[in-house]
Each structure stands twice: as structure tokens, then as C-alpha cells.
């Protein structure tokens, strides 16, 4: 697989889910809502395609999403955090990667919109985390 | 030089996810504080989830307010988006 070119200079987003379909679907939704200008990489499922997370997929996604502006990573459930943290321990540019504690779908959409508007890595992560407090009803 | 301004529009369609996204992306490019008010509720226009949470529907009157150095430009841009993006056929998106 070849990395997608990052031409926009916006913060990249990595969505880590136990389900490949969930990660891909959230990435599609976030891309549509934000206008498609942000690099969003889905890292879902295990290497065998089962439910679970994969360090190799997360590592590859970080490489694809990485640009000058940095990357924000959203895990779907707590145990995905373990996989992301393990990858970040060995990842070269870990200071430009922020792990957001956020609801998965809402956080992905909010983060991507702020990235599309040109927000920096801290603003993008903050938008994801603030999604926790926004009521739908 | 700070300014504040406000303009209203009657929506031609519901404020679904994609129009809300377009609105928030545009609002985020201005330094002014920008808000959207509909049905007695006000949301930060830079928060896509807040804008969607307004649940603004076709025929409803929506007000865009901004305060800051680029307030007039922000209000004009957002009114234009609300006018275009909620129009039937404005975005291929009337169900989302």
C-alpha cells in the first residue's frame, strides 16, 4: 500500500476501531461532513480481519496520516488505547501525535471539521474531546 | 478594530450534517466569535456538533451573529452557505 499524499497541510486523523467497518464508516462520514479535504485513515480490526485492534494497522495509519501539521488519533473503546500507546512508544514523531479521549463518531466528525478549517493539532484534539459535552437532543 | 454584526435567513431546507459541516469549516476560518441561533437556542458556529444539535429545519428563521475583527465577512460567508447548502439540490445531501 502506498501512503496517501498530504497536500493540504491540515492535521491528519487516524480512527482506531475494533471493527474495520466501523472505522471505515466513521472515516467516510467525517470526510463527507468536513468536505473531503482532510486525510482520515481508518485502522480497524485485527490483521486477520477479525474484531480487535492491530498495532501494524495503527502504525501504518499513522504513517499515512502524518504531515507537517501532526496527527490526532481517536480510539473507539478503551482497549484500543493500549494498542495505540504501544505503537506510539516506538513511533519516531510521537510529539506531533495526540491521542484524543472522545466519543468515536462525534469526535471524529468534530475533529475533522476543525482540521478542515485549519486548526492545529491541539485544537483538533480539543474539538474531539469537547464532543463529549455536546447534547444531541 | 472589532465589530459585531448579525443577519438572519429563512432556511430553504433542513440543516443536516453536510450543511452543518460546511458552515463550521467556514466559521473556523474566521477569528471572530461566530454563533448561530435557531428556535431559541444558540450554538458556536465553529462547532459542527453544536450546529447539528440546533435541529434547524426548513422554513425556520436562523440568525448568524459574529463579533470580532472579521465579523462582517464571517456573517456574509455563513449566510451564503446557509442559503446554498440548505437549498433543495444545493448539496447532494438532503437525507444526511
3D structure, described in words:
The complex is a heterodimer of chains A (137) and B (96). Chain A has a four-stranded parallel β-sheet with strand order 2-1-3-4, with helices on both faces. Chain A is α/β, with parallel strands linked by helices and 137 residues long. Chain A has helices spanning 20-34, 55-65, 78-90, 104-116, 121-130, and strands spanning 12-17, 40-44, 71-75, 97-99. Chain A has a single domain, classed as 3-Layer(aba) Sandwich (Rossmann fold), CATH 3.40.50.510. The N and C termini of chain A lie far apart (42 Å). Helix content of chain A is 45%, strand content 14%. In chain A, helix 4 (104-116) packs antiparallel against helix 5. In chain B, a hairpin with a 2-residue loop joins strand 2 (33-38) and strand 3 (41-44). Chain B has one domain (3-85): HPr-like (Histidine-containing Protein, Chain: A, 2-Layer Sandwich). The longest helix of chain B has 15 residues, at 71-85. Chain B has a four-stranded antiparallel β-sheet with strand order 1-4-2-3. The mean pLDDT of chain B is 91. In chain B, helix 1 packs antiparallel against helix 3 (71-85). Chain B has 96 residues and is an alpha+beta fold. Chain B is built from three helices and four strands, in the order βαββαβα. The radius of gyration of chain B is 12 Å and the shape is globular. Chain A binds chain B through residues 29, 32-35, 106, 109-110, 113-114, 116-119, 127, 130-131, 134-136, and chain B through 17-18, 20-22, 24-29, 46-50, 52-53, 93, 96.
Amino acid at each position: 500500500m502506498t501512503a496517501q499524499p498530504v497536500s493540504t497541510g491540515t492535521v491528519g486523523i487516524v480512527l482506531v476501531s475494533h471493527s474495520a467497518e466501523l472505522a471505515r464508516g466513521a472515516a467516510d462520514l467525517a470526510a463527507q461532513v468536513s468536505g473531503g479535504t482532510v486525510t482520515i485513515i481508518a485502522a480497524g480490526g485485527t490483521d486477520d480481519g477479525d474484531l480487535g485492534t492491530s498495532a501494524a494497522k495503527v502504525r501504518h495509519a499513522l504513517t499515512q496520516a502524518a504531515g507537517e501539521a501532526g496527527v490526532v488519533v481517536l480510539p473507539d473503546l478503551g482497549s484500543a488505547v493500549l494498542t495505540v500507546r504501544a505503537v506510539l512508544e516506538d513511533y519516531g514523531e510521537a510529539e506531533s501525535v495526540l491521542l484524543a479521549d472522545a466519543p468515536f463518531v462525534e469526535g471524529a466528525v468534530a475533529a475533522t471539521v476543525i482540521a478542515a478549517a485549519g486548526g492545529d493539532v491541539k485544537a483538533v484534539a480539543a474539538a474531539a474531546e469537547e464532543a463529549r459535552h455536546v447534547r444531541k437532543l | 478594530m472589532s465589530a459585531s454584526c448579525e443577519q438572519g435567513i429563512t432556511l430553504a431546507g433542513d440543516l443536516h450534517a453536510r450543511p452543518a459541516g460546511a458552515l463550521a469549516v467556514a466559521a473556523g476560518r474566521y477569528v471572530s466569535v461566530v454563533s448561530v441561533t435557531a428556535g431559541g437556542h444558540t450554538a458556536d458556529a465553529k462547532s459542527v456538533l453544536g450546529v447539528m444539535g440546533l435541529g434547524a429545519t426548513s422554513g425556520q428563521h436562523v440568525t448568524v451573529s459574529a463579533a470580532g475583527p472579521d465579523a462582517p465577512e464571517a456573517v456574509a460567508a455563513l449566510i451564503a452557505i446557509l442559503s446554498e447548502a440548505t437549498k433543495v439540490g444545493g448539496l447532494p445531501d438532503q437525507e444526511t
